[in-house]
Amino acid sequence: MKQVKILIVGCGARGSGYGRFVLQCPERAKVVAIAEPIAERRNAVGDAHNVPPEYRFNSWEDVARLPRLADAVLICTQDQMHEAPAIAFAQLGYDILLEKPMAPTAEACRRIVAAVKKAGVLFAVCHVLRYTAYTRKLKEVLASGAIGEIINIQHLEPVGYWHQAHSFVRGNWRNEEESSFMLLAKCCHDVDWLRYVMNRPCRQVQSFGTLKHFRSECAPKGAATRCLDCPAEIEKNCPYSAIKIYLRDRLDKGHSGWPVNVLSHEVTRETILDALRNGPYGRCVYACDNDVVDNQVVNMIFDNGSTISMTMTAFNAHSGRLTRIFGTRGSIDTDSNTMTLFDFLTDKKTVIDTAVKNDGGILSGHGGGDGGLMDAFISAVAEQDPSKILSGTDETLESHLMVFAAEESRKNGKVMDI
Ligand SMILES: NC(=O)c1ccc[n+]([C@@H]2O[C@H](COP(=O)([O-])OP(=O)(O)OC[C@H]3O[C@@H](n4cnc5c(N)ncnc54)[C@H](O)[C@@H]3O)[C@@H](O)[C@H]2O)c1
Q1: Closest ligand 1 atom to the C-alpha of 79?
Q2: What's the gap in Å between 224 CA and the centre of ligand 1?
Q3: pLDDT for the residue numbered 363
Q4: All structural domains of the chain
């Protein structure tokens, strides 16, 4: 099989993680160029892949000025920075792996899809949940007719109290203007996955959601604006304390990976304390510039009258998604690892285990979906076979449009047609 030459745009958490997959299969792919403005990230990823200095660029624009220098590009910049590189690299003829969400508006998503189709390049969005062993098994069970026709699905995305605090109150996805709204940033995965499981078009959506808790008026009396400055009796009693989340619960126990390594490229007690003292992750969760919701419900009705209710909430342990699928001949209860199938005819329960060992790396991230996606994308490019891609233009655009409609419903209080 041909060795796929790869350009990585954005060497942050996702870009460097996909790079590690490439290192595990050198016969199938090689990173030949990178673009990243932060020197220490550029050097770390460049060194890991032996990228020559002249192929280490400061920005994607510098690469886009040159003729095509790789078969495929992995676009792993932040949410607001997907559209311009996606269109530019499509026009240059690169096959594209684009991080989700495609873009923060429906119009921008449509422009990306139009450019990709015009260029005729391969295109996959990182809807990693479609690529998990668990989803593949679930699709197989559903296709076998084991539970008949799906009538209703109940789905919970338990973001988790500390993950919400890290990413959506203090971190990169806290503010809609700078990034995206919560449903797009976090639950475009869920909406896309539910559409994939239901396997038919959605007709209407409706949503409620609020930023209920992470607001200044919910701060404990006497709390400081930084956890390091907070009176000890308040700090020790706060589940969202940055000292608790990054130091007591993680670094002090020897865990220096995500999310601790988001605070500093080099992780030591000193660098993390410095980040807590001066950076965004040391702020009190009640004194941030966050505006994205901390709880949201979405109801969906499909073209055959089947329905879905989906809940996103910050207020739970950080864990796998929970889904219950109710069919005409049986039901399935799942926690993203194990499926319990109940058959109405025999009253029998069958338990199917699809758990993937999580070693903390990107390849086991999202239940093996990150590795599954890279595996599929590299094969698709090597063989020029779009059928390997489960998250291409049309299906991704459709599920993104469902997300935009749901968010509009949350804002205007109306039921939205898709
Ligand atoms: N598929 C998933 O499950 C999943 C999970 C988490 C995040 N994401 C998405 O992945 C994307 C990246 O997230 P991340 O956590 O890696 O972010 P990150 O901030 O760690 O990485 C983004 C990188 O892009 C770089 N960058 C900025 N301007 C650039 C330019 N002009 N040219 C090249 N690089 C540039 C930044 O310096 C940074 O290193 C986001 O859109 C995010 O929503 C997807």
Answers
A1: 41
A2: 31
A3: 58
A4: 4-121 (3.40.50.720), 130-214+290-417 (3.30.360.10), 216-282 (no CATH)
Residue 418 pLDDT more than 80?
A: yes
Q: Is the pLDDT of residue 320 over 90?
A: no
Amino acid 1: pLDDT: 75
Q: What is the 3-state secondary structure (H, E, C) of the chain?
A: CCCEEEEEECCCHHHHHHHHHHHHCCCCEEEEEEECCCHHHHHHHHHHCCCCHHHEECCHHHHHCCCCCCCEEEECCCHHHCHHHHHHHHHCCCEEEECCCCCCCHHHHHHHHHHHHHHCCCEEECCHHHHCHHHHHHHHHHHCCCCCCEEEEEEEEECCHHHHHHHHHHCCCCCCCCCCCHHHHCCHHHHHHHHHHHCCCEEEEEEEEECCCCCHHHCCCCCCCEHHHCCHHHHCCCCCCHHHHHHHCCHHHCCCCCCHHHHCCCCCHHHHHHHHHHCHHHECCCCCCCCCCCEEEEEEEECCCCEEEEEEECCCCCCCCEEEEEECCEEEEECCCEEEEEECCCCEEEEEECCCCCCCCCCCHHHHHHHHHHHHHHHHHHHCCHHHCCCCHHHHHHHHHHHHHHHHHHHHCCCEEC
- Who lines ligand 1 at CB under 6 A? 9-15, 35-38, 41, 59-60, 76-79, 81, 99-100, 126, 128, 172, 185, 366
